[in-house]
UniProtKB/TrEMBL annotation:
Coiled coil: none
Entry membrane topology: Multi-pass membrane protein
Origin species: Brevibacterium gallinarum
Name recorded for this polypeptide: MMPL family transporter
Transmembrane segments: 20-41, 177-196, 208-231, 237-255, 276-304, 310-334, 385-413, 553-573, 585-606, 618-637, 669-688, 694-722
Length: 938
């Protein structure tokens, strides 16, 4: 990974104009596609397979006149006048006729219709006009709202002064969110933090540029996907919020590392390449964890949530790609402007080195600079601050751990009262038409009129449909929590009955959920008494089912996230204790975030401070989204903080010193990243959209708690408690787990051996002290290899195949150093594999045997190394002849030849008088002379 990213960073730096042009072209193309084909968002919450959704879908066939969307128009008289007297009655009936003629309206019902009950309130001063549409709300055009609003305005103008006419209902359900200028505050704060962290306006601007490019592409992809997919309008806001935060943070990690590398004396190109290889590796890991967690939202089995997770995951993936390519490109444009002048060529540090070659004056200047550099410097305020922080956290580590667990546990306690529901008009912004209508209906009729429920019955076997439905109506009215049954009618073919029920409570009240359960509990009674199969449905029942399924998915999703974090962190840190500690910290952060959300949004503590207009249940998918996003971000901070500790420990520092070194090297960037994340998320809280407010609040407090309390306080304390045991991993697990080089250790090895062995000679293969283990014992050990272009090396004995596979980049040595064709292994193994075809002339598996045709093809595309295993065991004459021709051509072309031999004395495949070296691994393992320079004489 680090080797690939190193080359990627160098390439992007050198071809910076092309890189930036490609990304801008992608933006332009996507923008054009959206302008030409982009559709609209669909805010319908569907739950395929649920009782409520199946019954609702069935109504489209059996009762089409009630299967579409609906709306209401509330009329409140002036000064409590009776609504069933003129001018109210006549004007309302005239309006009902006009609404009935509007496009897409299937029917408008007058409140004075004798078949409808309960749509005139008990005081007689308010009435509800029910409007039924021919399509579901998500398919209706925006003009449907405009037309109904126009009729409401006309009626308002015709009624006496003081009357109120307010449209509302399902048509006006607020499920969309909008971007406002307030969100830009987070970006401004991020820029200020970046300037303080990086000390340069140029450097601070780079993460913002990359984040805007990534988010722009992500948003355009989401908008474009509306042309062929169902996308909820909450989706782009979530993607924007997350993409902006991670886009800034990922670029910050890379720019910070590049500047540090420049401070160490490397030029901008090398600094960019190393930053992408090191910090970029961590960015890839961090991005992958966020992406997996977001895609994991699909475990809930709810389509709109799956789309939301995938869209956000794609945006994060784009943010990673942009950070890895555009950031080094921008580094190429800015060069040394990212660092203070003293670190540039011609600055104090560089000039001393240059002038030292120009005489005594230059030598004295260099000595003075060296003396200044070596003079002890007093640590700066920031360094002293972080030293004090980690010292305080680890002074009495057990006390720190207890305080953190107790404190965050106390914050998490309110989470037991967390209530979930899908959005309704009661959460709309004050003063809007849907909120006004909702409040007026609640005031004059009761909240239950905002949450009607529907019971459908298959009455095809009934001989008295009206009588049976009336009896069912009476049964339903006996249920505690049912306010009134306003309608119980059969369809035209008398095979389906529909009963509309008004509960006593609002749509997001938990007691309404209990009413739905009680109605469903009547199903056996209706079956036994009437022989009817019944279902409870309606938009509110669907919303309740969605919330229930989301609540039920929380545990399996939590198990998925926790299990994933354990495995991923074991791969990164090669430890048992570190992943367990990281996961425990994540659970503490999530629990505290849930608790604080409950305190503010459900219980109302401090609601006014955060602009929460209505206290009650939060949106149903908040917990699962909060868990998914916080998991990914928590793992980011864990990796950047603890990897520095692991690196220090691996290089010989004591466990205690490793904690301090790792903390000091990473704390500044982690703090900056956390403040940026917090600012971006917190900027969405003041917005008027109730849907995103609670999610943004939960993410903001979750990030703050996880970064500052868990990662920077709890983690060092636990590491201090564990000591050396923090890095223990069983050997069998060490061998089993894949290795993820998140800190770019491989790159340091690759760079270190880039010019090795350093004698100026050209080697095809050069290796020292190579060893490979298998089944608990060495396959080969302490093997030295030297092969120059045009030379032949033959290997025989036990382990010959394994050694050739190692040289060809197909196996990784456990010990020693190896370069093949100038490539350092194992970091550049993919390039070695592509350069050296591995050919076998005999095998128990026919599929592995190289054909004569392939041998001849290899001769035409001559590689720098021709490697043939079991070269003395050709299956037939044609294969032997092709192998001989290939070897002769390789030597003539100056290529090296590596042969694996079953018989150490076999050399018939070589041209006569060919000098070659024989390495006998059997003799080598016995400690005898192993290498012989031989000549084929016949």
């Amino acid at each position: 990974m680090s080797s690939f990213l190193y080359e990627l960073g160098r390439t992007a730096f050198r071809r910076r104009k092309t890189v930036v042009a490609v990304w801008l072209a992608i933006l332009a193309v996507l923008g054009g596609f959206v302008a030409a084909f982009g559709g609209s968002f669909n805010d319908e919450f569907r739950l395929p397979g649920s009782e409520s959704q199946e019954a609702l879908d069935s109504l489209e066939l059996t009762f089409p006149e009630v299967a579409g969307g609906s709306a209401t128009m509330l009329v409140v008289t002036a000064d409590g006048q009776p609504v069933d007297t003129d001018p109210y009655k006549s004007k309302i009936e005239d309006t009902v006729e006009k609404i009935d003629d509007l496009p897409h309206v299937d029917g408008a019902t007058s409140p004075f219709d004798e078949m409808i009950d309960g749509v005139i309130n008990a005081d007689g001063d308010a009435a509800i006009v029910n409007v039924q549409y021919d399509q579901s709300v998500d398919l209706l055009p925006d003009s449907a709202k405009d037309d109904l609003q126009a009729e409401a305005d006309r009626l308002q103008a015709e009624l006496p002064e003081g009357s109120i006419v307010s449209p509302g209902g399902e048509l006006y359900t607020v499920t969309s969110v909008h971007i406002s200028i307030i969100e830009a505050i987070g970006v401004v704060i991020a820029f200020i933090v970046l300037i303080f962290t990086l000390g340069s306006a140029w450097a601070a601007g780079m993460p913002l540029v990359t984040a805007v490019i990534g988010v722009g592409i992500g948003m355009l992809l989401i908008l474009g996907s509306t042309a062929f997919a169902t996308v909820n309008s909450t989706t782009p806001m979530l993607a924007l919020m997350l993409g902006l935060a991670v886009g800034i943070d990922y670029a910050l990690f890379i720019v910070s590392r590049a500047r540090q590398t420049m401070f160490d004396g490397h030029d901008p190109e090398e600094s960019a390449a190393r930053a992408i290889a090191t910090a970029g590796s961590a960015v890839v890991f961090a991005g992958v964890t966020v992406i997996i967690a977001l895609v994991g939202l699909s475990v809930a089995g709810i389509p709109f949530l799956t789309v939301m997770g995938i869209a956000a995951a794609v945006t994060v993936a784009i943010a990673v790609a942009v950070a890895l390519t555009v950031t080094p490109a921008l580094l190429g444009f800015l060069g040394y402007r990212l660092v203070p002048k003293k670190h540039r060529p011609g600055g104090s540090r560089h000039s001393a080195t240059v002038s030292g070659a120009e005489g005594v004056e230059g030598e004295e200047s260099a000595q003075r600079a060296e003396s200044e550099e070596s003079r002890p410097r007093k640590p700066g305020f920031v360094t002293r601050f972080y030293d004090a922080w980690v010292a305080a956290a680890t002074k009495i580590p057990l006390l720190t751990v207890v305080i953190v667990i107790a404190g965050l546990g106390a914050l998490a306690l309110p989470a037991k009262d967390l209530q979930l529901a899908l959005p309704d008009n009661g959460g709309a912004e004050e003063g809007t038409a849907p909120r006004t209508s909702y409040d007026l209906i609640s005031e004059h009729f009761g909240e239950g009129f905002n949450s009607p429920l529907v019971v459908t019955a298959n009455i095809i076997s009934s001989t008295d449909p009206l009588g049976d439905l009336d009896d069912m109506k009476a049964d339903i009215e006996k249920i505690d929590g049912v306010h009134k049954v306003i309608m119980a009618v059969p369809n035209r073919s008398a095979d389906t009955g529909l009963i509309q029920i008004i509960p006593e409570y609002g749509p997001s009240d938990e007691r309404t959920t209990e009413v739905v359960k009680k109605l469903r509990d009547l199903k056996p009674h209706f079956q036994d008494e009437y022989g009817f199969d019944t279902s409870v449905t309606g938009s509110n029942a669907v919303a309740i089912d969605v919330s229930d399924q989301l609540g039920g998915a929380l545990l399996p999703f939590g198990i998925f996230v926790v299990g994933l974090s354990l495995i991923l962190l074991m791969m990164v840190f090669r430890s048992i204790a570190v992943p367990i500690k990281a996961t425990l910290g994540f659970l503490l952060s999530v629990g505290a975030a849930f608790g604080l959300v409950t305190l503010v949004f459900v219980q109302g503590h401090g609601a006014d401070i955060f602009g929460v207009e209505k206290v009650g249940p939060v949106i149903s998918f908040l917990p699962i989204i909060l868990m998914g996003i916080l998991f990914g971000l928590a793992m980011d901070y864990e990796v950047f903080l603890v990897s520095g500790m692991r690196e220090a420990f691996a290089h010989g520092a004591s466990a205690k010193d490793a904690i301090h070194r790792g903390f000091q090297s990473s704390a500044r960037v982690v703090v900056a990243a956390a403040i940026i994340m917090f600012a971006v998320f917190a900027a969405f809280v003041p917005a008027g959209d109730a849907i995103i407010k609670s999610i943004a609040f939960g993410l903001a407090v979750g990030i703050f708690i996880d970064a500052f309390i868990v990662r920077m306080t709890f983690v060092p304390a636990v590491m201090a408690l564990l000591g050396d045991k923090a890095w223990w991993l069983p050997r069998w697990l060490e061998r089993t787990l894949p290795h993820f080089d998140v800190e770019g250790e491989g790159l340091y090895h690759q760079v270190q051996y880039k010019d090795w062995p350093g004698d100026g000679r050209d080697y095809s293969v050069y290796g020292e002290d190579l060893g490979l283990d298998g089944s608990g014992r060495p396959v080969f050990d302490k093997v030295d290899l030297v092969v120059q272009p045009g030379e032949v090396l033959a290997v025989s004995g036990q382990g010959a195949t394994a050694l050739l596979l190692t040289i060809a980049g197909r196996a990784t040595p456990d010990r020693g150093e190896l370069k093949v064709l100038g490539r350092v292994l194992p970091e550049e193994a993919p390039k070695v594999r592509s350069a050296i075809p591995y050919m076998v002339l005999n095998s128990a598996e026919d599929a592995l045997i190289t054909s004569p045709g392939y041998l001849r093809h290899t001769r035409e595309q001559m590689p720098d190394i021709v490697l043939i295993d079991r070269a003395d065991q050709a299956r037939d004459h044609d294969t032997a002849e092709a192998a001989q021709d290939l070897i002769s051509a390789a030597l003539a072309a100056g290529s090296s030849v590596l042969l694996g031999l079953g018989n150490r004395d076999a050399d018939w495949m070589l041209p006569p008088q060919t000098h070659y070296r024989l390495l006998d691994l059997d003799a080598h393992n016995r400690g005898k002379d192993t290498a012989h320079d031989l000549v084929r004489t016949s």
